[in-house]
Amino acid sequence: MFKQVYTGSEIRLQFDFVVGGQTVLVSQPQADVFDPFGNKVDVVDLVFSGGHYLTYWTTPSATLGSYVAIGRGKYGYEDLLANSQVRFDVVSSLTTELVTLDEVKEYLHVDDFSEDPFLRALLLAASSAILAYTQLKLGSVSETERCFLSGATQYGLRYFPISEITEIKLDSVDLVEDTDYFVELSTGLIKFFVPQTGFFECTYTFGLSQIPSPVKLACLKLVAALYNLRESEGFSSRRLLSNVENYLRDAKMDVMTEVRSLLAPYKRKLV
User: Is 88 within 8 Å of 141 (Cβ atoms)?
Assistant: First the structure.
C-alpha cells in the first residue's frame, strides 16, 4: 500500500537527481503528476530546499486512487529524471464503522434480521458520533501542516492519533524530538521545551490502523444504550438517529458516563 492522503490535502513531493552515484543540481526542475488512469493531470515547479527538490501538491476531490509524481529537469543539455518516483493513494475521509453489524447483534443478543437496517443505521450514527467526539481518524494518512508560531509552547496537530512524525521544521531548521519537543501520539499535541517563534512546518502520518478495544466497546455500549432507549422510552428511530452526538456528549445516564470514560484516553483535552 502506498502512502495515503485525503482528498483536498497537501502532499510533499520530494526528489533527488543522481548522476554517476552523485546527487546533482538541475535546471528547470519540475514534476509531472499522473492520475490512476495514467493521465497527466498537473505539472508543478520544484524548488531546491534542504538538499532536495520539492513542492507541495493539493490532491483532487474528483478522482480517487493511486497517483504517481515523476521529477524531471535539465542536467547540462540532457533531460534527467529523478532517481525515484512519489506514489500515493488519494482516499476519501468517509466515516467507517467502528464495529461490525454482527458484533452489534451479538452484544444485543439479537438473532433475527428484521432490525438489521435500523441497527446498521444506528451503528453508522454511533461510529460517526464517536469519531466526531474524539476527533480520531481511521486509516493511515499523511499530512503536512504549516503556520506561523509566536511564542508558542505547544501546537495541536489537526489530525491524530499520530503514528509517525516525519519532520518538524521552524524557519526551515529541523527540530529534534526529545531535545526541542515531545509529542503526545494519542492526541497529536506537540509540546516545546522552550517557546517557539517562526514559520512552523510538520509532516506526519496519522490515523488508527487498528481500532482500540476500548473504542470498540464504547461503540457497542452507545449503540446498546440508544437501542434500549427506543425499547424502554418509545423514542422513534428518527429521533434517536438525529440526536446521537447530543446523547454521547450531554446525557447523564450511567452508561453514557461509562462510554465517555472509555473514550477519554483518545480525546484531545482542551488546554
Answer: no
Grid cell listed for 196: 517557539
For residue 176, what are the contacts with CB-CB under 8 A and spacing of at least 6?
Answer: none
Close Cβ partners of 60 (under 8 Å, ≥ 6 residues apart): 7, 8, 35, 41, 90
Q: Are residues 162 and 71 in the same domain?
A: no
Q: Which residues contact residue 268 at a Cβ distance below 8 angstroms, ignoring those fewer than 6 apart?
A: 134, 135, 156, 160, 187, 188, 189
Q: Is 0.70 topped by the overall pTM? A: no
**Which residue from 74, 67, 55, 42 is spatially nearest to 15, judged by alpha carbons?**
55
Chain centroid, CA 200 distance in Å? 19
Whether residues 220 and 131 share a domain: the answer is: yes
Are 53 and 145 found together in one domain?
no
Residue 75's CB: how many other CB atoms inside 10 A? 13
Number of domains observed in the structure of the chain: 3
Q: What is the pLDDT along the chain (271 residues), one digit of tens a residue?
A: 457 787 888 888 999 999 999 999 999 999 999 988 888 999 999 999 888 999 999 988 777 778 999 999 999 999 999 998 998 888 765 557 899 889 999 999 998 888 888 888 888 888 888 988 888 877 777 888 999 999 999 999 988 889 889 999 999 999 999 999 999 988 889 999 999 999 999 999 888 778 889 999 999 999 998 888 776 655 566 666 667 877 787 777 788 889 999 999 888 665 4
